[in-house]
Amino acid sequence: MNKQYSVEIQSMVYEGGGFSRLPDGKAVFVPYVMPGEQVTIQIREDKKGFALADLVSVDRLHPQRIQPRCAHFGICGGCHYQHIPYELQVAYKKDILIEQLQRIGGIESPVIEAVIPSSNEWAYRNTVQFQVSSKGKLCYAKARDNFPFAVRECHLPMPALAQLWPQLTFEPESFIGRLDLRQNQNGDVLLEMNGNQSEIPELESESSVSIVSLAGDDQVVLAGDGYLIAEVLGRPFLISAGSFFQTNYSGAEALINQVLALVREYKPQRLLDVYSGVGLFSAFLAGEVDELLAVESSPAACRDFVVNLDEFDTVSLAEGLAEKILPELDFSADVVLVDPPRSGLRPQAREAILNQGARAIIYVSCNPATLARDVRAILEAGYRLEKTILVDMFPQTYHMETVALFLI
Ligand SMILES: C[S@@+](CC[C@H](N)C(=O)[O-])C[C@H]1O[C@@H](n2cnc3c(N)ncnc32)[C@H](O)[C@@H]1O
Protein backbone atom coordinates (compact mmCIF):
# COMPACT_ATOMS: atom_id res chain seq x y z
CA MET A 1 0.00 0.00 0.00
CA ASN A 2 1.25 3.49 -0.80
CA LYS A 3 2.27 5.69 2.07
CA GLN A 4 -0.19 7.87 3.98
CA TYR A 5 0.53 11.37 5.30
CA SER A 6 -1.27 14.01 7.32
CA VAL A 7 -0.99 17.42 5.63
CA GLU A 8 -2.62 20.85 5.84
CA ILE A 9 -4.06 22.15 2.56
CA GLN A 10 -2.46 25.47 1.67
CA SER A 11 -4.42 26.62 -1.38
CA MET A 12 -6.62 25.53 -4.26
CA VAL A 13 -5.04 24.86 -7.63
CA TYR A 14 -6.41 24.72 -11.16
CA GLU A 15 -8.15 21.50 -12.17
CA GLY A 16 -9.89 20.77 -9.00
CA GLY A 17 -7.51 19.97 -6.20
CA GLY A 18 -5.84 21.49 -3.19
CA PHE A 19 -2.12 22.03 -2.82
CA SER A 20 0.10 21.01 0.08
CA ARG A 21 3.64 19.76 0.72
CA LEU A 22 4.88 16.37 1.88
CA PRO A 23 7.33 16.26 4.82
CA ASP A 24 10.27 16.29 2.34
CA GLY A 25 8.93 19.51 0.74
CA LYS A 26 7.56 17.89 -2.42
CA ALA A 27 4.36 19.47 -3.79
CA VAL A 28 1.28 17.27 -3.49
CA PHE A 29 -2.17 17.73 -5.03
CA VAL A 30 -5.31 16.36 -3.35
CA PRO A 31 -8.90 16.47 -4.65
CA TYR A 32 -12.12 17.41 -2.73
CA VAL A 33 -10.46 19.52 -0.02
CA MET A 34 -10.50 23.15 1.10
CA PRO A 35 -7.63 25.42 2.16
CA GLY A 36 -6.88 25.16 5.89
CA GLU A 37 -8.18 21.61 6.18
CA GLN A 38 -6.00 18.98 7.85
CA VAL A 39 -6.31 15.82 5.80
CA THR A 40 -4.97 12.30 5.61
CA ILE A 41 -3.83 11.46 2.11
CA GLN A 42 -2.48 8.44 0.33
CA ILE A 43 0.01 8.89 -2.50
CA ARG A 44 -1.44 7.70 -5.78
CA GLU A 45 1.30 8.76 -8.20
CA ASP A 46 4.75 9.86 -7.16
CA LYS A 47 6.18 11.91 -10.02
CA LYS A 48 9.56 13.61 -10.33
CA GLY A 49 8.62 17.10 -9.14
CA PHE A 50 5.25 16.50 -7.46
CA ALA A 51 2.86 13.83 -6.21
CA LEU A 52 -0.84 13.14 -6.73
CA ALA A 53 -2.73 11.86 -3.70
CA ASP A 54 -6.12 10.40 -2.86
CA LEU A 55 -8.07 11.89 0.03
CA VAL A 56 -8.40 9.33 2.83
CA SER A 57 -10.08 11.52 5.48
CA VAL A 58 -10.65 15.14 6.42
CA ASP A 59 -9.43 15.38 10.00
CA ARG A 60 -10.03 19.08 10.53
CA LEU A 61 -12.90 20.42 8.42
CA HIS A 62 -13.10 23.88 6.90
CA PRO A 63 -15.88 25.60 8.90
CA GLN A 64 -17.83 26.30 5.70
CA ARG A 65 -17.59 22.80 4.16
CA ILE A 66 -21.04 21.62 3.00
CA GLN A 67 -22.65 18.31 2.10
CA PRO A 68 -22.33 17.57 -1.65
CA ARG A 69 -25.69 17.24 -3.39
CA CYS A 70 -24.87 14.40 -5.79
CA ALA A 71 -24.36 10.72 -5.00
CA HIS A 72 -21.59 10.58 -7.65
CA PHE A 73 -19.55 13.36 -6.03
CA GLY A 74 -15.99 12.15 -5.47
CA ILE A 75 -16.23 9.69 -8.36
CA CYS A 76 -17.52 11.76 -11.26
CA GLY A 77 -15.12 13.89 -13.29
CA GLY A 78 -17.78 16.59 -13.77
CA CYS A 79 -17.96 18.31 -10.38
CA HIS A 80 -15.02 18.97 -8.05
CA TYR A 81 -16.50 21.71 -5.86
CA GLN A 82 -19.86 20.52 -4.49
CA HIS A 83 -18.44 20.49 -0.95
CA ILE A 84 -17.75 24.23 -1.18
CA PRO A 85 -20.42 26.96 -0.79
CA TYR A 86 -20.86 28.76 -4.10
CA GLU A 87 -19.49 32.17 -2.96
CA LEU A 88 -16.29 30.43 -1.86
CA GLN A 89 -16.06 28.44 -5.11
CA VAL A 90 -15.96 31.75 -6.98
CA ALA A 91 -13.43 33.24 -4.53
CA TYR A 92 -11.16 30.20 -5.00
CA LYS A 93 -11.46 30.51 -8.79
CA LYS A 94 -10.31 34.11 -8.51
CA ASP A 95 -7.27 33.04 -6.43
CA ILE A 96 -6.49 30.32 -8.98
CA LEU A 97 -6.68 32.78 -11.88
CA ILE A 98 -4.31 35.15 -10.05
CA GLU A 99 -1.91 32.29 -9.32
CA GLN A 100 -1.90 31.16 -12.99
CA LEU A 101 -1.31 34.71 -14.27
CA GLN A 102 1.53 35.09 -11.78
CA ARG A 103 3.28 31.76 -12.14
CA ILE A 104 2.70 30.99 -15.83
CA GLY A 105 1.90 34.47 -17.17
CA GLY A 106 4.81 36.16 -15.41
CA ILE A 107 2.69 39.04 -14.07
CA GLU A 108 3.89 40.17 -10.67
CA SER A 109 0.61 41.33 -9.12
CA PRO A 110 -2.37 40.48 -11.34
CA VAL A 111 -5.55 42.41 -10.65
CA ILE A 112 -8.96 40.89 -11.40
CA GLU A 113 -11.24 43.87 -12.00
CA ALA A 114 -14.53 42.03 -11.68
CA VAL A 115 -15.85 38.61 -10.79
CA ILE A 116 -19.27 37.77 -12.21
CA PRO A 117 -20.91 34.73 -10.61
CA SER A 118 -23.41 32.51 -12.40
CA SER A 119 -27.06 33.39 -11.83
CA ASN A 120 -27.85 29.66 -11.30
CA GLU A 121 -25.77 27.39 -9.10
CA TRP A 122 -27.55 24.25 -10.37
CA ALA A 123 -29.55 23.26 -13.47
CA TYR A 124 -27.61 25.70 -15.65
CA ARG A 125 -26.14 23.43 -18.34
CA ASN A 126 -27.84 23.68 -21.73
CA THR A 127 -25.64 20.84 -23.02
CA VAL A 128 -24.73 17.46 -21.55
CA GLN A 129 -22.51 14.80 -23.01
CA PHE A 130 -22.69 11.12 -22.21
CA GLN A 131 -20.75 8.12 -23.34
CA VAL A 132 -22.97 5.16 -24.17
CA SER A 133 -21.55 1.95 -22.70
CA SER A 134 -21.54 -1.37 -24.54
CA LYS A 135 -24.52 -2.28 -22.31
CA GLY A 136 -26.43 0.73 -23.65
CA LYS A 137 -26.18 2.79 -20.43
CA LEU A 138 -25.49 6.52 -20.26
CA CYS A 139 -22.13 7.16 -18.63
CA TYR A 140 -19.95 10.02 -17.46
CA ALA A 141 -16.17 9.74 -17.06
CA LYS A 142 -14.62 9.13 -13.65
CA ALA A 143 -12.41 11.88 -12.23
CA ARG A 144 -9.62 9.45 -11.37
CA ASP A 145 -9.04 7.64 -14.66
CA ASN A 146 -11.71 8.84 -17.14
CA PHE A 147 -13.23 5.36 -17.02
CA PRO A 148 -16.98 5.45 -17.81
CA PHE A 149 -19.53 4.85 -15.04
CA ALA A 150 -23.34 4.63 -15.36
CA VAL A 151 -24.97 7.91 -14.31
CA ARG A 152 -27.92 7.80 -11.91
CA GLU A 153 -28.23 11.50 -11.12
CA CYS A 154 -26.85 14.84 -12.23
CA HIS A 155 -27.90 18.26 -10.96
CA LEU A 156 -26.31 20.45 -13.62
CA PRO A 157 -28.56 20.06 -16.72
CA MET A 158 -31.42 22.49 -17.40
CA PRO A 159 -34.94 21.15 -16.74
CA ALA A 160 -35.89 19.69 -20.14
CA LEU A 161 -32.59 17.77 -20.30
CA ALA A 162 -32.96 16.66 -16.68
CA GLN A 163 -36.40 15.27 -17.52
CA LEU A 164 -35.25 13.55 -20.70
CA TRP A 165 -31.88 11.92 -20.13
CA PRO A 166 -32.94 9.39 -17.45
CA GLN A 167 -35.38 7.91 -20.00
CA LEU A 168 -32.69 7.23 -22.57
CA THR A 169 -31.57 3.64 -22.88
CA PHE A 170 -30.05 1.99 -25.88
CA GLU A 171 -29.71 -1.56 -27.06
CA PRO A 172 -26.48 -3.24 -25.92
CA GLU A 173 -23.68 -2.92 -28.52
CA SER A 174 -25.44 0.01 -30.19
CA PHE A 175 -22.03 1.65 -30.84
CA ILE A 176 -23.29 5.16 -30.32
CA GLY A 177 -20.16 6.27 -28.55
CA ARG A 178 -20.93 9.82 -27.54
CA LEU A 179 -24.37 11.30 -27.04
CA ASP A 180 -24.84 15.07 -26.83
CA LEU A 181 -28.08 16.62 -25.58
CA ARG A 182 -28.82 20.33 -25.81
CA GLN A 183 -31.83 22.46 -25.03
CA ASN A 184 -32.97 25.99 -25.67
CA GLN A 185 -34.86 28.20 -23.20
CA ASN A 186 -38.25 26.93 -24.44
CA GLY A 187 -37.29 23.37 -23.57
CA ASP A 188 -36.81 22.19 -27.17
CA VAL A 189 -34.15 19.50 -27.23
CA LEU A 190 -31.57 18.44 -29.80
CA LEU A 191 -30.16 14.94 -29.36
CA GLU A 192 -26.93 14.24 -31.24
CA MET A 193 -25.78 10.63 -31.59
CA ASN A 194 -22.20 10.25 -32.72
CA GLY A 195 -21.51 7.29 -34.97
CA ASN A 196 -23.65 5.97 -37.82
CA GLN A 197 -26.95 5.53 -36.03
CA SER A 198 -30.37 4.87 -37.41
CA GLU A 199 -32.01 3.64 -34.20
CA ILE A 200 -34.31 6.28 -32.71
CA PRO A 201 -34.62 6.00 -28.94
CA GLU A 202 -38.18 5.79 -27.61
CA LEU A 203 -38.99 8.90 -25.62
CA GLU A 204 -41.87 10.33 -23.69
CA SER A 205 -41.17 14.00 -23.59
CA GLU A 206 -43.11 17.18 -22.99
CA SER A 207 -40.55 18.95 -25.18
CA SER A 208 -40.02 18.83 -28.90
CA VAL A 209 -37.02 16.57 -29.53
CA SER A 210 -34.89 16.65 -32.66
CA ILE A 211 -32.59 13.69 -33.26
CA VAL A 212 -29.51 13.80 -35.44
CA SER A 213 -26.99 11.10 -36.23
CA LEU A 214 -23.50 12.51 -36.74
CA ALA A 215 -20.50 10.85 -38.38
CA GLY A 216 -17.73 13.42 -38.76
CA ASP A 217 -19.35 16.33 -40.55
CA ASP A 218 -22.04 14.11 -42.12
CA GLN A 219 -25.44 14.49 -40.50
CA VAL A 220 -28.66 12.54 -40.87
CA VAL A 221 -31.74 14.07 -39.26
CA LEU A 222 -33.73 11.18 -37.79
CA ALA A 223 -36.48 13.26 -36.16
CA GLY A 224 -37.49 16.91 -35.95
CA ASP A 225 -35.57 19.84 -37.45
CA GLY A 226 -32.00 18.84 -36.63
CA TYR A 227 -31.22 22.19 -35.03
CA LEU A 228 -32.20 24.47 -32.14
CA ILE A 229 -33.00 28.16 -32.02
CA ALA A 230 -31.74 29.68 -28.78
CA GLU A 231 -32.26 33.27 -27.72
CA VAL A 232 -29.40 35.25 -26.24
CA LEU A 233 -29.90 38.89 -25.17
CA GLY A 234 -33.03 38.98 -27.30
CA ARG A 235 -31.37 37.66 -30.47
CA PRO A 236 -32.20 34.26 -31.93
CA PHE A 237 -29.30 31.95 -32.80
CA LEU A 238 -29.44 28.93 -35.04
CA ILE A 239 -27.41 26.12 -33.47
CA SER A 240 -26.99 22.95 -35.50
CA ALA A 241 -25.76 19.57 -34.40
CA GLY A 242 -21.97 19.69 -34.18
CA SER A 243 -21.73 23.48 -33.64
CA PHE A 244 -20.18 24.80 -30.44
CA PHE A 245 -22.41 26.93 -28.21
CA GLN A 246 -21.72 28.37 -24.74
CA THR A 247 -22.98 25.95 -22.09
CA ASN A 248 -24.74 28.40 -19.79
CA TYR A 249 -27.18 30.87 -21.39
CA SER A 250 -27.03 33.54 -18.68
CA GLY A 251 -23.24 33.11 -18.51
CA ALA A 252 -23.10 33.66 -22.28
CA GLU A 253 -25.06 36.89 -21.83
CA ALA A 254 -22.63 38.05 -19.14
CA LEU A 255 -19.67 37.29 -21.45
CA ILE A 256 -21.22 39.20 -24.35
CA ASN A 257 -21.97 42.20 -22.14
CA GLN A 258 -18.34 42.30 -20.98
CA VAL A 259 -16.94 42.01 -24.52
CA LEU A 260 -19.42 44.56 -25.86
CA ALA A 261 -18.50 47.08 -23.15
CA LEU A 262 -14.79 46.71 -23.99
CA VAL A 263 -15.39 47.07 -27.73
CA ARG A 264 -17.54 50.17 -27.16
CA GLU A 265 -14.76 51.70 -25.09
CA TYR A 266 -12.22 51.27 -27.92
CA LYS A 267 -14.59 52.05 -30.83
CA PRO A 268 -12.82 49.99 -33.49
CA GLN A 269 -13.59 50.33 -37.19
CA ARG A 270 -12.34 46.91 -38.21
CA LEU A 271 -12.74 43.96 -35.92
CA LEU A 272 -11.46 40.40 -36.27
CA ASP A 273 -13.44 37.71 -34.39
CA VAL A 274 -11.23 34.61 -34.31
CA TYR A 275 -12.84 31.29 -33.24
CA SER A 276 -16.24 32.86 -33.86
CA GLY A 277 -18.41 29.72 -33.57
CA VAL A 278 -21.97 30.39 -34.76
CA GLY A 279 -21.39 34.13 -34.42
CA LEU A 280 -22.40 34.70 -30.81
CA PHE A 281 -20.06 37.67 -30.31
CA SER A 282 -20.04 38.82 -33.94
CA ALA A 283 -23.82 39.25 -33.93
CA PHE A 284 -23.59 41.85 -31.16
CA LEU A 285 -20.37 43.47 -32.38
CA ALA A 286 -21.21 43.81 -36.08
CA GLY A 287 -23.38 46.87 -35.46
CA GLU A 288 -20.55 48.56 -33.54
CA VAL A 289 -17.92 48.48 -36.30
CA ASP A 290 -17.54 49.33 -40.01
CA GLU A 291 -16.21 45.92 -40.94
CA LEU A 292 -16.01 42.57 -39.18
CA LEU A 293 -14.17 39.46 -40.29
CA ALA A 294 -14.75 36.19 -38.47
CA VAL A 295 -12.60 33.04 -38.60
CA GLU A 296 -13.98 29.62 -37.69
CA SER A 297 -12.99 26.05 -38.61
CA SER A 298 -16.15 24.03 -37.96
CA PRO A 299 -18.25 23.68 -41.13
CA ALA A 300 -21.46 23.31 -39.07
CA ALA A 301 -20.73 26.47 -37.06
CA CYS A 302 -19.87 28.33 -40.29
CA ARG A 303 -23.21 27.40 -41.85
CA ASP A 304 -24.97 28.65 -38.72
CA PHE A 305 -22.87 31.83 -38.70
CA VAL A 306 -24.01 32.71 -42.22
CA VAL A 307 -27.66 32.42 -41.16
CA ASN A 308 -27.18 34.16 -37.80
CA LEU A 309 -25.45 37.17 -39.35
CA ASP A 310 -27.42 37.31 -42.57
CA GLU A 311 -28.67 40.86 -41.91
CA PHE A 312 -25.15 42.41 -41.92
CA ASP A 313 -23.45 43.17 -45.23
CA THR A 314 -20.34 44.45 -43.41
CA VAL A 315 -19.53 40.97 -42.05
CA SER A 316 -17.49 38.27 -43.75
CA LEU A 317 -16.41 34.84 -42.63
CA ALA A 318 -13.24 32.89 -43.39
CA GLU A 319 -13.77 29.17 -42.92
CA GLY A 320 -10.74 27.18 -41.85
CA LEU A 321 -8.08 26.83 -39.19
CA ALA A 322 -7.02 30.12 -37.61
CA GLU A 323 -3.37 29.05 -37.72
CA LYS A 324 -3.64 28.61 -41.51
CA ILE A 325 -5.86 31.60 -42.33
CA LEU A 326 -4.41 34.32 -40.10
CA PRO A 327 -0.81 34.31 -41.41
CA GLU A 328 -2.17 34.87 -44.97
CA LEU A 329 -4.84 37.39 -44.04
CA ASP A 330 -5.21 40.69 -45.85
CA PHE A 331 -7.29 42.46 -43.18
CA SER A 332 -5.82 44.79 -40.61
CA ALA A 333 -8.03 44.98 -37.56
CA ASP A 334 -7.82 47.62 -34.88
CA VAL A 335 -9.38 45.23 -32.36
CA VAL A 336 -8.90 41.45 -32.38
CA LEU A 337 -11.24 39.24 -30.36
CA VAL A 338 -10.14 35.65 -29.73
CA ASP A 339 -12.13 32.88 -28.00
CA PRO A 340 -10.07 29.75 -28.61
CA PRO A 341 -10.78 26.19 -27.42
CA ARG A 342 -9.24 24.96 -24.14
CA SER A 343 -5.85 24.45 -25.78
CA GLY A 344 -5.52 28.22 -26.31
CA LEU A 345 -3.84 29.88 -29.28
CA ARG A 346 -1.70 27.78 -31.61
CA PRO A 347 1.76 29.43 -32.00
CA GLN A 348 1.20 30.33 -35.69
CA ALA A 349 -2.20 31.87 -34.90
CA ARG A 350 -0.79 33.78 -31.94
CA GLU A 351 2.10 35.14 -33.96
CA ALA A 352 -0.21 36.26 -36.76
CA ILE A 353 -2.54 37.96 -34.28
CA LEU A 354 0.38 39.80 -32.70
CA ASN A 355 1.65 40.81 -36.17
CA GLN A 356 -1.71 42.48 -36.83
CA GLY A 357 -0.56 45.32 -34.56
CA ALA A 358 -4.14 45.87 -33.34
CA ARG A 359 -4.72 48.56 -30.70
CA ALA A 360 -6.51 46.06 -28.50
CA ILE A 361 -6.77 42.30 -28.14
CA ILE A 362 -9.74 40.89 -26.25
CA TYR A 363 -9.08 37.32 -25.15
CA VAL A 364 -12.02 35.19 -23.96
CA SER A 365 -10.64 32.05 -22.36
CA CYS A 366 -12.11 28.88 -20.85
CA ASN A 367 -8.74 27.69 -19.51
CA PRO A 368 -6.66 29.95 -17.23
CA ALA A 369 -3.53 27.82 -17.76
CA THR A 370 -3.41 28.27 -21.55
CA LEU A 371 -4.59 31.88 -21.14
CA ALA A 372 -1.63 32.52 -18.82
CA ARG A 373 0.77 30.88 -21.31
CA ASP A 374 -0.57 33.13 -24.11
CA VAL A 375 -0.52 36.18 -21.81
CA ARG A 376 3.22 35.81 -21.44
CA ALA A 377 3.68 35.83 -25.24
CA ILE A 378 1.27 38.75 -25.73
CA LEU A 379 3.09 40.83 -23.09
CA GLU A 380 6.45 39.97 -24.65
CA ALA A 381 5.11 41.40 -27.93
CA GLY A 382 4.67 44.79 -26.23
CA TYR A 383 1.02 44.71 -25.05
CA ARG A 384 -0.02 45.34 -21.45
CA LEU A 385 -2.79 43.52 -19.66
CA GLU A 386 -5.31 46.28 -18.97
CA LYS A 387 -8.29 44.43 -17.57
CA THR A 388 -9.11 40.90 -16.41
CA ILE A 389 -12.66 39.80 -15.65
CA LEU A 390 -13.67 36.39 -14.36
CA VAL A 391 -17.09 35.16 -15.49
CA ASP A 392 -18.21 32.01 -13.73
CA MET A 393 -20.35 29.90 -16.03
CA PHE A 394 -19.63 26.54 -14.39
CA PRO A 395 -20.70 26.32 -10.72
CA GLN A 396 -19.71 23.11 -8.87
CA THR A 397 -16.76 22.61 -11.24
CA TYR A 398 -13.25 24.06 -11.40
CA HIS A 399 -13.93 25.59 -14.84
CA MET A 400 -14.07 29.34 -15.37
CA GLU A 401 -14.22 31.88 -18.18
CA THR A 402 -11.94 34.90 -18.30
CA VAL A 403 -12.15 38.03 -20.41
CA ALA A 404 -8.78 39.75 -20.72
CA LEU A 405 -8.14 43.06 -22.46
CA PHE A 406 -4.64 43.84 -23.80
CA LEU A 407 -3.64 47.28 -25.08
CA ILE A 408 -0.51 48.39 -26.85
C1 LIG B 1 -14.66 28.27 -27.30
S1 LIG B 1 -15.46 28.14 -28.83
C2 LIG B 1 -15.98 29.81 -29.05
C3 LIG B 1 -17.05 30.05 -30.08
C4 LIG B 1 -17.74 31.40 -30.05
N1 LIG B 1 -16.83 32.49 -29.81
C5 LIG B 1 -18.85 31.41 -29.03
O1 LIG B 1 -18.72 32.08 -28.00
O2 LIG B 1 -19.88 30.76 -29.27
C6 LIG B 1 -14.14 27.93 -29.92
C7 LIG B 1 -14.51 27.84 -31.40
O3 LIG B 1 -13.30 27.72 -32.13
C8 LIG B 1 -13.45 26.77 -33.17
N2 LIG B 1 -12.10 26.27 -33.44
C9 LIG B 1 -11.42 25.30 -32.78
N3 LIG B 1 -10.18 25.19 -33.25
C10 LIG B 1 -10.07 26.12 -34.25
C11 LIG B 1 -9.00 26.50 -35.11
N4 LIG B 1 -7.82 25.91 -35.03
N5 LIG B 1 -9.22 27.50 -35.99
C12 LIG B 1 -10.43 28.11 -36.06
N6 LIG B 1 -11.47 27.79 -35.26
C13 LIG B 1 -11.29 26.81 -34.36
C14 LIG B 1 -14.45 25.76 -32.63
O4 LIG B 1 -15.13 25.11 -33.69
C15 LIG B 1 -15.37 26.65 -31.77
O5 LIG B 1 -16.45 27.10 -32.55
Automatic annotation (TrEMBL):
PROSITE patterns: SAM_MT_RNA_M5U, TRAM, TRMA_1, TRMA_2
Alphabetical list of Gene3D superfamilies matching this protein: 2.40.50.1070, Nucleic acid-binding proteins, Vaccinia Virus protein VP39
GO BP annotations, alphabetical order: rRNA base methylation
Family annotation (Pfam families): TRAM, tRNA_U5-meth_tr
InterPro entries for this protein: MeTrfase_TrmA_AS, MeTrfase_TrmA_CS, NA-bd_OB-fold, SAM-dependent_MTases_sf, TRAM_dom, U5_MeTrfase_fam
MF annotations from Gene Ontology: rRNA (uridine-C5-)-methyltransferase activity
Residues the record lists as binding S-adenosyl-L-methionine: Q246, Y275, E296, D339
Domain TRAM: 1-57
Signal sequence segment: none
Entry keyword set: Methyltransferase, S-adenosyl-L-methionine, Transferase
Active site: C366
UniProt similarity note: Belongs to the class I-like SAM-binding methyltransferase superfamily. RNA M5U methyltransferase family.
Protein name: 23S rRNA (Uracil1939-C5)-methyltransferase
Species assigned in the record: Pelolinea submarina
Lineage start: Bacteria, Bacillati, Chloroflexota, Anaerolineae, Anaerolineales
